[in-house]
């Protein structure tokens, strides 16, 4: 029996910046991100198209440029027609979720403020706006790879309460704001999954509540510079396990 063909689309939450080994330094794509871990569990042939900093537009239609030197074509162009599984983890850069947390924490130092110019610019989008971007991607995938199971994979929870956390320079008000953005992104995922039949949703946000920043076993990094507030290796392993269990339900494993 031929191995499953698995395609991963997404931003840094899929790519795994800061998790060694990095296989593409411009995409900040790790060999230990959840797509790679999942592919090994499945014995699948992986096409990992994830790029750190990507927006949903970069997945669908807009090339992504790195320092005006390296350009990644829209990720959807890399999907083979015979793909069996396509996962999508993105949307946070569209509305400034993780990047918003990074702006706030970096902004407490002079050098950090200089670096904020490298972060993607957020747009003022409603939950439905973001969901519509997801559904546009879903519709396009189905024209390219009609037999593929499409799986939307949420972001892990970063903050589980509004209480300030040691070594993270955010007060209750700012943490509450970022939690609200995260909640909005989860809602967009839910809307998108309901908008098209046969789309699966992995509720990583809910399943990671006990593993937020400051917990005994966090699945995301803390205030760690360039790659702060992103999934760590344990988080990637946990997400891979969640998706694997969902695929078992679909009798794909």
Q: Which stretches are poorly predicted, pLDDT < 50 over at least 5 residues?
A: none
Mean pLDDT reading: 93
Percentage of residues in strands: 5-15%
Count every helix, treating DSSP H or I runs of 4 or more residues as helices.
10
Q: How many domains comprise the coordinates?
A: 1
By CATH, the architecture is named: 3-Layer(aba) Sandwich
CATH topology: Rossmann fold
Distance between the termini: 12 Å
What does the main sheet amount to? 5 strands, parallel
**Which strand order do you get reading across the main beta sheet?**
4-1-7-8-9
Number of strands: 9
Indicate the percent of residues in helices. 25-40%
H/E series, N to C?
A: EHEEHEHEEEHHHHEHEHH
Q: For the CA atoms, what is the radius of gyration?
A: 17 Å
CATH H level, superfamily name: SGNH hydrolase
Shape: globular
> What is the C-level CATH assignment?
Alpha Beta
From the helix content, strand content and strand pairing, which structural class follows? alpha/beta
